[in-house]
Write a structure and sequence with these properties.
Length: 295
């Protein structure tokens, strides 16, 4: 059986099902970050790794400074999705010997720019020879207060579903310049009791079912309300992927307060209610198939 016969979700589930976990592991594989700490610790540690591969996540002709920015920002987006604050990064660069040093330097310029912007210390890593395309891997640590750590699995029937920003357009290079929503997530977890949250990396059509499934819920999606990037169709907003916006769920009784407060703090970033969570018996497939790495 090949990976393409199973699809990404089933491959990941099969590979991670029997992993050994110590007593200090609060959350292992299956969420945006691993969470480490004792149950009553005031703060928990977050661990995340992410990779960008030439020909998959960027093209050979893309500006390497933008590629470096994207590489670190992808991992930062996952820290944001847990309500956390990033700390330290390790970078692995694997490249063919003929790769130009000037491009490698530019990759690191992009990494440094993202690190300075979001308060990350790049503390080491690894370089290696690649017989194929270049890849850049980021391992990132962070912290989050125990009371503000938000998982995918806490959604409840009736919760309102929201997304930040606009969706679609990654294929027009939006994916190289996105801003990880760290500040927005910190504000949300300080001021509201979110039930579930994740970042949108594989597209809403893929990631919303993941959040609902983790929360043992189904969902209703109002396609007419989707905040589309200019020029994008509903299908592109659902399936383009690499939006790196926040998707979250909270009790509907808090919706009015959230919608009133949000524009006062983030006037340039839309916040859109796109649906709500339903009982699991109401499960329906998304209107379009989302992104799958092994499809």
């Amino acid at each position: 059986m090949k990976l393409s016969d199973l699809g990404e979700n089933r491959v990941v589930a099969a590979l991670t099902r029997a992993l050994a976990l110590g007593a200090d592991v609060r959350v292992g594989a299956g969420d945006d970050c691993a969470v480490i700490g004792r149950p009553r610790d005031a703060r928990w540690q977050l661990l995340k790794t992410d990779v960008v591969i030439e020909g998959v996540h960027f093209l050979p002709g893309d500006d390497p400074r933008r590629v470096g920015w994207k590489a670190l920002s992808r991992a930062l987006s996952d820290i944001a999705a847990m309500g956390g604050t990033p700390q330290h990064a390790l970078i692995t660069l694997a490249a063919p010997p003929h790769f130009e040093m000037a491009r490698a330097t530019a990759l690191y310029a992009g990494l440094r720019r993202a690190a300075r912007r979001f308060g990350v210390s790049i503390v080491g890593g690894e370089t290696a020879r690649s017989p194929g395309p270049l890849f850049l891997n980021v391992a990132l640590t962070g912290t989050v207060e125990r009371t503000r750590c938000i998982l995918r699995s806490g959604g409840r029937t009736g919760d309102a579903l929201y997304v930040t920003g606009r969706l679609g357009g990654s294929r027009a290079d939006k994916h190289l310049d996105f801003i990880p929503r760290l500040a927005e997530a910190r504000w949300l977890t300080e001021n509201f009791k979110l039930h579930a949250m994740m970042d949108l990396s594989d597209g809403l059509a893929t990631d919303l079912p993941r959040l609902a499934t983790a929360s043992r819920c189904a969902f209703n999606l109002d396609e007419s309300s989707l905040p589309k990037t200019k020029g994008c169709t509903v299908r592109q907003a659902l399936t383009d992927g690499e939006d790196f916006e926040l998707l979250f769920a909270l009790a509907p009784r808090h919706a009015t307060a959230l919608e009133a407060a949000w524009p006062q703090h983030f006037p340039r970033l839309p916040l859109t209610r796109i649906g709500h969570l339903l009982p699991p018996s109401a499960l329906r497939p998304p209107p379009f198939p989302g992104h799958d790495h092994f499809a």
